[in-house]
């Protein structure tokens, strides 16, 4: 094995190991939808088993149905195929020192396994009698678009239906306009497509902050009591700045080695050698992710191992120089963590923004619950047409009556995965034949 290949293997192993450890410690998870759930476990509101089940349900289908297939043929891993699985590994591993060791080792092995055997993994799933992995990718489809709805829901909850409706319409118009007119020709046959979901979320966040700032203070000097509302959670992130900074640096280094990419657009551009365009696409994506990552971090005290994703931009611009990419990535993540503290202090000066936190968490959970349920139903119907909707609705209602119900967020995805397993077992004994289309 040559030295360059060894460097790549060691780098991806460190990425996988560190990310899994961060998930196990509750410091950072990559799945935006999982971030609001982690504090529920840390505060004892849900069990370790429920957290693990939720993580698996939310991420596994995206790993197999989205992350890995997108990576095939490009020789570059879509980071979702790595970090979504390390979320699962970290949450499934036990707590304490034993869990950290298990998370780090398994996460590292998984990262190396992806680099060495990506195609073998997909081929193994293809050997199943009924291939339901393609259908599982539909589980996360509604989440991407529906996430930009949560600011309007939070506004309606905090400020009333009228303001929530205004925000919803503005978000919808942004989504429509960017989808229709957000593609720009950069020359040489290259195009840049803005993230409609990211920009519509940004507009919704602007409305949410604007309405919150308009709430007048009662005149009392309550900054000391307000510090605990946001800064307690932000300080949790700040305390772990070394873990986060090193992880950000390693992710940037892995990007510079062309091992991983942050999104399908930059991945395809990188695989074609269009690195400047890839960096621009990654930068535009990062801008759109600032409100999402910062807001969820401030509210939940849980960060993303890739931060606001600007570490990918640094990696692309510093391609072939992993050491410099690592240094810049560390600095970028450190600056992000410090900005969180500044933003949290600013938020504490406004009572409306202080109160906004709980509305954000509630809105996120509700939006995710509905989106994942719809995605699970879509995937189940694709797996077993004519049965899927019945299956998901039935499990949803029965779950509500169970003595120990599954977390609502996990019902749709778990239902789809269970149905996929069941139809394969039925196929083996000749009781199910998949519908062939086309």
TrEMBL record:
Superkingdom is: Bacteria
Q: Which residues cross the membrane?
A: 6-30, 51-68, 100-127, 139-157, 164-182, 194-213, 241-262, 282-303, 310-335, 370-398, 405-432
Instruction: Tell me the keywords, alphabetical order.
Output: Membrane, Transmembrane, Transmembrane helix
Entry-linked InterPro entries? Uncharacterised_YhfT
For the keyword Membrane, the answer is: yes
| Keyword field contains Lipoprotein | no
The coiled-coil segments of this chain are none
Tell me what this protein is called.
Uncharacterized protein
Its source organism is Vagococcus bubulae
């Amino acid at each position: 094995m040559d030295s360059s290949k060894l460097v790549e293997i060691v780098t991806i192993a460190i990425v996988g190991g560190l990310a899994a450890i961060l998930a196990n410690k509750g410091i950072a998870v990559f799945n935006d939808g999982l971030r609001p759930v982690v504090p529920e476990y840390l505060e004892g509101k849900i069990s370790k088993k429920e957290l693990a089940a939720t993580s698996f349900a939310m991420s596994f289908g995206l790993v197999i149905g989205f992350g890995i297939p997108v990576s095939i043929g490009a020789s570059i891993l879509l980071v979702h195929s790595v970090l979504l699985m390390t979320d699962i590994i970290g949450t499934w591993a036990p707590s304490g020192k034993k869990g950290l060791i298990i998370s780090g080792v398994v996460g590292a092995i998984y990262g190396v396994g992806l680099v060495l055997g990506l195609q073998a993994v997909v081929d193994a799933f293809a050997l199943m009698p009924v291939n339901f992995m393609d259908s599982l990718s539909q589980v996360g489809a509604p989440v991407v678009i529906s996430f930009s709805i949560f600011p309007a829901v939070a506004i309606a909850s905090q400020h009333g239906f009228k303001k929530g409706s205004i925000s919803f319409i503005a978000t919808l118009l942004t989504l429509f306009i960017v989808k229709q007119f957000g593609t720009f020709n950069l020359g040489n046959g290259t195009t840049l497509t803005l993230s409609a979901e990211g920009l519509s979320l940004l507009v919704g966040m602007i409305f949410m902050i604007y309405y919150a700032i308009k709430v007048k203070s009662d005149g009392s000097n309550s900054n000391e009591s307000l510090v605990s509302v946001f800064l307690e959670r932000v300080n949790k992130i700040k305390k772990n700045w070394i873990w986060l900074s090193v992880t950000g640096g390693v992710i940037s280094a892995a990007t510079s080695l062309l091992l991983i990419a942050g999104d399908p657009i930059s991945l395809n551009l990188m695989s074609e050698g269009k690195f400047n365009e890839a960096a621009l696409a990654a930068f535009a994506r990062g801008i759109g992710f600032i409100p999402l990552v910062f807001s969820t971090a401030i509210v939940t005290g849980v960060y993303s191992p890739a931060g606001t994703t600007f570490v990918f931009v640094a990696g692309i611009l510093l391609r072939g120089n992993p050491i410099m990419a690592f240094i810049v990535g560390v600095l970028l993540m450190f600056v992000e963590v410090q900005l969180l503290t500044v933003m949290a202090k600013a938020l504490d000066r406004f009572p409306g923004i202080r109160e906004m936190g709980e509305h954000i968490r509630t809105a996120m959970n509700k939006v995710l619950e509905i989106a994942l349920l719809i995605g699970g139903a879509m995937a189940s119907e694709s797996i077993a047409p004519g049965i899927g909707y019945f299956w998901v609705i039935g499990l949803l209602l029965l779950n509500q009556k169970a003595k120990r119900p599954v977390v609502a967020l996990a019902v749709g995805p778990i239902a789809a995965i269970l149905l996929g397993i069941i139809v394969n077992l039925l196929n083996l004994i000749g009781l199910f034949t998949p519908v062939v289309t086309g």
